[in-house]
């Protein structure tokens, strides 16, 4: 039950963030559901590997290269999910930052940490 609630919170976060950031469009709630699901899967499976192989540059940039990885993940998801479009790389980086903040705030107020 908690997993479904977190998935729905992430879905709403995706929709809110897409509404706030120009250059990002989500066609409907179903597209946002798929984006949230795929982001969760990619962050669970692919992100640790990407962080590991880019560890030297990540250390050199004091962790700022993680934003680049997050932007690439957003672009990957936008290329797979129909109805989710991101207009460019820097928009994807900004989307990932704002999405993290919105998701954190929503989880804080709903009580799922």
Question: Which terms would index this structure?
Answer:
two-stranded antiparallel ribbon, 2 strands, mainly alpha, single chain, 113 residues
Number of strands: 2
Strand order of the largest sheet: 1-2
Q: Can you tell me the residue ranges where pLDDT is under 50 for at least 5 consecutive residues?
A: none
* N-end to C-end Cα span: 14 Å
Percent helix among the residues? over 70%
Q: Decide which structural class fits the backbone.
A: mainly alpha
Please state the average pLDDT score.
Answer: 94
Count of individual domains: 1
Please state roughly what percent of the residues sit in beta strands, choosing from under 5%, 5-15%, 15-25%, 25-35%, 35-45% or over 45%.
Answer: 5-15%
Radius of gyration, taken over Cα atoms and rounded to an integer in Å: 14 Å
**How many H/I helices?**
6
Give, in order, the helices and strands. HEHHHHEH
Largest sheet: 2 strands, antiparallel
General form: globular
How would you portray this structure in words?
There is one protein chain. The chain is mainly alpha-helical and 113 residues long. The protein has one domain. 77% of the residues lie in helices and 5% in strands. It is built from six helices and two strands. It has helices at residues 2-20, 29-45, 47-53, 55-60, 65-80, 89-110; strands spanning 24-26, 84-86. Strands 1-2 form a two-stranded antiparallel sheet. Helix 2 (29-45) crosses helix 5 and helix 5 (65-80) crosses helix 6 (89-110). The longest helix is centred in the C-terminal third of the chain and has 22 residues, at 89-110. It is globular and about 40 Å long.
């Amino acid at each position: 039950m908690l997993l479904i609630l977190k998935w729905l919170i992430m879905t709403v976060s995706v929709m809110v963030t897409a509404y706030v950031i120009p250059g990002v469009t989500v066609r409907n709630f179903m597209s946002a559901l798929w984006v949230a699901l795929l982001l969760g899967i990619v962050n669970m499976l692919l992100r640790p590997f990407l962080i590991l192989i880019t560890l030297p540059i990540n250390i050199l940039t004091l962790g700022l290269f993680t934003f680049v990885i997050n932007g690439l993940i957003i672009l990957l998801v936008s290329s797979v999910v129909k109805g989710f479009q991101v207009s460019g790389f820097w928009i994807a980086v900004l989307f990932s930052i704002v999405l993290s903040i919105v998701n954190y705030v929503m989880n804080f107020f709903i009580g799922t940490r």
